[in-house]
Fold these 3 entries.
Entry 1:
Amino acid sequence: MELTTEQFIHDFEATLKEQKQITIADAIPEELFLALAKTTRQYYTPLWLDRKHALQKREDKIAFYFSVEFLPGRMLETNLLNLGILDTVKDAFTQLGVDFDAVKESEHDMALGNGGLGRLAAAFMDSLATTGYPGFGNGLRYRYGLFKQRIVNGYQVELPDSWFGSIGNVWETRKDHDIVYVSFFGNVYMTDAGDGKLKPVYNNAQVLRAVPYDVPQIGFGNGVVNNLRLWDVEIPEEYELNYPTIEDRRRVEDITAVLYPDDSTDEGKKLRLMQEYFMTSAGLQTIVKSYLKMGLPLERIYEKVSVHINDTHPAVAPAEFMRILVDDYGLEWDVAWEATCKTMSYTNHTILSEALEKWHTGLFSYVLPRVYQIIVEIDNRYISRMSAQGVDYETIENTRIVRNNQIHMAHLAIIGGHSVNGVAKLHTELLKEDTLRDFYKISPEKFNNKTNGIVQRRWTQIAAPHLSQTIDKWIGDGWRSDIHELRKLNDFVDNPDAQADFWQVKQESKQRLADYIEKTTGVHVNSQAIFDVQVKRLHAYKRQLLNVLHIIKLYWDIKDNPNADFTPRVFIFGAKAAPGYHFAKSVIKVINELANLINNDPAIGDKLKVVFLENYRVSLAELIIPAANVSEQISLASKEASGTSNMKFMMTGAVTLATLDGANIEIKQEVGDDNIVIFGMDKDAVYRHYESHDYYSRGIYESNPVIHRVVNSLVDGTIPNCQSEGNEIFDALITYNDEYFLLEDFQSYVDAQARIAQLYADRSRWMHMSLMNIANSDKFSSDDTIRQYAQEIWQLHLPQA
Ligand SMILES: *Cc1c(COP(=O)(O)O)cnc(C)c1O
């Protein structure tokens, strides 16, 4: 949009006066933020309305992305950038003498997600708007986002993240006219509806009100505003007498109180199931209602609507859709089933079996009695259909939905939809040949790959403005709207002046991070050192512990040979552990105690520093990632479905140190073998161990003196104050046979790390690598990923202008 600084200053001052009855000079950053956000709302609101009316008028097909997690982080800069007024606003603030950064930092991260999965959903919202496709989000409006992490005495402490704070969510709009009702519990029986059909009658159900709050998703430079709809729960007035105490009310409000802080297993099962059904049912009900307003036949709803199931949490969708079509609107089962399958599609995010959701039939039928009946019917019909097609008994048993009193949600999503995708090439291959191979045998046409992506704008233009200006200087600013133009940088990867410029920019980012580290942890780090970064959720498969073992080795190397050459390193960690994940929390404790030991040892000095930054989240990632020299992507091959932080690091010029896992393989293809450092077993080697059961970690420990000494350091008092955590980790590695093969990959990792040090010492070689990474990162734009979803899975069309 067109906006002069004068016009903006006028609007901003008026809003501030109206909202807070003060002038700029008297306002604190929070007040300035609120006024700026409200001013921004005035700018996008007409676009939002136009979009809604245009889509209604043209009756375009719309995709709805159902996800229990959305992790957008801060919205202010994205909204300003995408409206095309970020620079105008920054200029105006400079004129007004207001510190823009202080204002932007008073926005609380919108943290309605755990990690990569939620971040991907948020990226897709941005990219749908930016590409112009009609794609809306559907999720939950948690009052508390992911917990806030504090480190106390080296331990993780979890605090509630009351992100609404005193000002609420400034971006959302409550939509009372789209309220719907969702039922739980009670019992259901079928009666004759008089026309030969059976109709369900519900007794003693708990009916709750679902209230939508819409959050705008603004496209980059195109005036498009899509919708992210988040549902909140309320008790309908007519049922208030059922909830006489505060406790009774709270139990209901809990449905939208907290995001489950564990992205791999499910706790609080009943509440979790209620959350999943609540947002799925509310979303589907409003979708059907708004479709019917067009006056088109319900059985052809798939021509105007796609529903995407992001991981299994909304996988009850096919059954709930059947309930709506058959029970609420009277469609014949077979007609409804065809419409359902053509509407639904599903993304699988993991092959870790503990993360594939299953519900016990007892719990499920108690919470959702009618949906349970429908699932059983879907399952029975599936079995008959497969038997009739000659599918063998075992395959049917392995793929059916209800088995041994468990409801397999992934199976429901696959059977009730037309598309299943993995999130990186290797991951999709593993789904086909292992995790979901029986489904692949039956319906190979459903399977496809969509490698994850990142919103390049957030990780370059917003997180790394100086890097972006330097890119402009060398190749012009066309890359800002067409990411593929980044490839022009390939012409300059060996240009000494370009290398010097980009080196300088990286140094500035490192200094900014060094200042933050000193301010928040008191540790002084030298920005000339290699900044070696591993930031992601703490999980055994991601192998932060392998990084730790290597650091212990370096510690002994320096102690043994204080005069040897050593390229200084700063190891930077950021990671939240699920509150109930004991092992992961022990790793955090050990990292912090190891950091204490190393950072305070004068014999180590500036050669080695270890830093754990608390409360890793999107806004912190924006500070850390552009400052990295080395991107640690060291999961056990086959376990990381894709990874996306690997892409963010690549795009901002870090060199990837990685196993051949997830999208690391595709990064390697893009940058070439010489511009990435690969180590460790590949997926085939890992699977060979699984098949031959020949791994014996104690054997490695006993025969390799380096590993022996490093592992013993966990338990012999070398690292103080973590005896029990050290023992727990020792047991995982030695007594319980090292489930993620750290000891097997250790030597290869050490060698790769030595290679990193060697490469870094040769600055022009290093800058060649760094620039090759930036120049060839365009493949990982989520704009392109979403175009593939839109065209290949959802069959959307770009609205004609
Ligand atoms: C990108 C991102 C992730 C995902 O990181 P991976 O290393 O791919 O697991 C997690 N959390 C935040 C805050 C992120 O920005």
Entry 2:
Amino acid sequence: MQFYDQARWKDDEGEAYEPLLSEKKSREEPIEDAPLPDDLTRDSLELPDLSEPELARHYTRLSQMNYGVEQGPFPLGSCTMKYNPKFTEDVAALEAGAVHPDRREETVQGTLAMLAGLQDYLGRIGGMDAVTLQPPAGAAGEYTGLLIARAYHDHNDDDRSEVIIPDTAHGTNFASAALAGFDVVELPSGDDGRVDSEALNAAVGDDTAALMLTNPNTLGLFEREISEIADIVHEAGGLLYYDGANLNALLGRARPGDMGFDIMHYNVHKTFATPHGGGGPGAGPVGVVETLEPFLPDPHVREADGDYELYEPEHSIGKVHGFQGNWLVLVKAYAYIARLGDPGLADASAKAVLNANYLASRIDYEIPFEPFHHEFVASAGDQDAGDAAKRMLDYGVHPPTTKWPEIVAEALMTEPTEIENRETLDQLAAAFEAVAEEADETLAAAPHRTTARRIDQATAARSPRLSWQALDQE
Ligand SMILES: *Cc1c(COP(=O)(O)O)cnc(C)c1O
């Protein structure tokens, strides 16, 4: 087994330390001979005046004090932390300098063709008739999809105020529905971890605007009654929303559109191997069935007589992001899907499911709900899942997602993805096994080998300081 000591750049006291850029000593003599006229320059930005090697070392050191998918496995369930193949960066770099978002349509036909091409790819993958690429994240996609649902019902003079969401759903579903102005109706899962059609029947009614669902759900279980569920919602006049943040179990095998879903979002920064984490930028395209196409965000790309153009859909909900969304992320997703092709996508989902099942077969933690697909939720049992997770870092692997979904006590939600080979899966299994046998005290004090040990997660999430200006203001 391989062990791990994270690099630790330190201060005099031995505390982890890498100075902020603003704390680094600036060049003795600032560059005076900027080639720009005075009226086009400003000094209010207070940028540190550093050389390229100083910058490169700063960011490399920070990366050495962190854990990433380029160091080892990253089985963070639901998040689908795939390795981002480098060729997609090359493709994005080709395009990067070339287009200004305000250029006239006739001068950017290639760009529009690529956007239309990605709309088509995603539409085919999800079984949707039209796709907007504008939303910048999964949660933004949910919000966009729900605005479309609202606009559709309003257009039909149908006043519907409720969105039904299973208790196992991702937290963003509840937040997006509330932000879009709906009342949230939480649906308790059945004993088998799936939607209970009796409970659903009791929840739907004249107020139902939509049901939001993930399939396979966050326990990795396929909703076998999906056709019946779709009928119940549709008969009540509601729409079916598919949370497709993570499509790794379905790629090339099954399509939400064929299951009866009307709206879905995709996370290109999960399923389609574009960078993920650190707050983005990502992209959360939204697909819809034909009847909802007139409500898509403005502008939308379409092909007309061999040319590509931007247009405003008839009952558009308006803009949800600047221009066409996060263009370079979309280029990377396009490149990834084009390189894999249909057989490659189907192969990815096969390996994702195989890897999750192989890993699960090698660990002793109980897995209460089966059969799962691309991810499984183990229970840490008497251990605290958060502590067990921290300890895994000491074995050189990233921990799984913890304590969610709540229907499994001390949940360890694990998704190895298709990128890992058997040797790495064995390494992951060995880490799980080692941690499963350790005493609570050892776990509670972990991690020992990382640069930062226990951080104050709540404060980091609630009051993030994302710039040195924010730090300065304290
Ligand atoms: C990640 C995720 C989301 C939210 O996506 P973001 O891009 O993080 O906003 C929604 N639903 C599920 C199931 C997810 O895993």
Entry 3:
Amino acid sequence: MSTTTPDAEGESGQGSGEGEVTGYGFATQAIRVGQPSESEQAHAEPIYATSSYRFASAAEAAARFSGEQPGNVYSRFTNPTVAAFSQRLAALEGGEACVGTASGMAAVLATTLGLLSAGDHIVASRGLFGATLSLFSNHLTRFGISVSWVDLTDTTAWREAVRPNTRMLFAETPSNPLCEIADIARLAQIAHAADALLVIDNCFCTPALQRPLEHGADLVVHSATKYLDGQGRCLGGAVVGDRQRVGEQIYGFIRSAGPAMSPFNAWVFLKGLETLSLRMAAHSERAQRVAEFLAEHPGVARVYYAGLPHHRGHEVARRQQSGFGGIVSFTVAGGREAAWRVIDATRLCSITANLGDTKTTITHPATTTHGTVSEAQRQAAGIEEGLVRLSIGLEDVDDIIDDLARGLPAAG
Ligand SMILES: *Cc1c(COP(=O)(O)O)cnc(C)c1O
């Protein structure tokens, strides 16, 4: 299956970063790459709400099905709105190809099942998103894929965990919820020395703040549900990388297995991408202010935000990111009771585990996102009872700060 350019006739379900609009800056590409060609000359990208496509003749149908002739066949694997999203995200991440998926987890699933076989081994960071942890340890293992877990920032542990059958290193940076930072270039060296692939989940930074492929990663996975949408409306995901692995192997898996992105959701993500760089800069600026406020507050024991100079990932983050993002975590003295008091005292922040929204969200990881993890594992991961995670939205930052101050003990 060939990849398509933004102006190519007959779009497919995957995107290529190449096209007439490359060469422009990030914000321009986020708005201009991936305009489906269509006869009504609509200015906004149309939503192609169709499951299938008509063919001019039996011969054309045969040529389309065989892949001899590029073009639309069936929306599980070819849809112009999904292709437009994929082309745009490929351009923004600097990848040759991109496929859209039904959710972020579908992107992780397609990346692993599309590329790995029984007997293969993955090295992954311990602090991965909960559903990724569960997919790897409870499901992939049933198909003969083994996993070793290491600390995200411990480069020696990554190197030592590699075995002859290691095919993939998988990491999220910055991590959730403690904003740990992995050195992508060093992980890429370890992966490539072992003839393995480095996969980075770029959900927290998005390509507006970090482009892992430029640092040597082979593949980027996304939960589009978070910042790519940016307003908490739709589930979706994506994988970006080279034409062979993404454009053929992972795309082929999605074509057969079916975790496809819906055209409506693709359209929402297209609109989300158009404001991505503005939003990520605004999330980062507000998060920095909130982190600085918390760092100076006597009721706060510790703040986890790579934008603070004392954070141990600060220097690496400065090198590989163009901003520190919108996720801030902090611990209050007094354990769960004190953490819940801060959460319950808020009137503005939404108590929900979702992130990447215009609305600021607040959550208690130890009893929600990490609630099913054993106490020992939580401690190893640094998820204390007093920990609170924030996803800083786009409200006025002073209102966010006032809201957090309500439940913190008064100074003195
Ligand atoms: C939410 C999330 C996912 C999963 O995405 P869904 O769209 O919810 O399936 C994967 N990785 C990270 C880092 C996430 O935050």
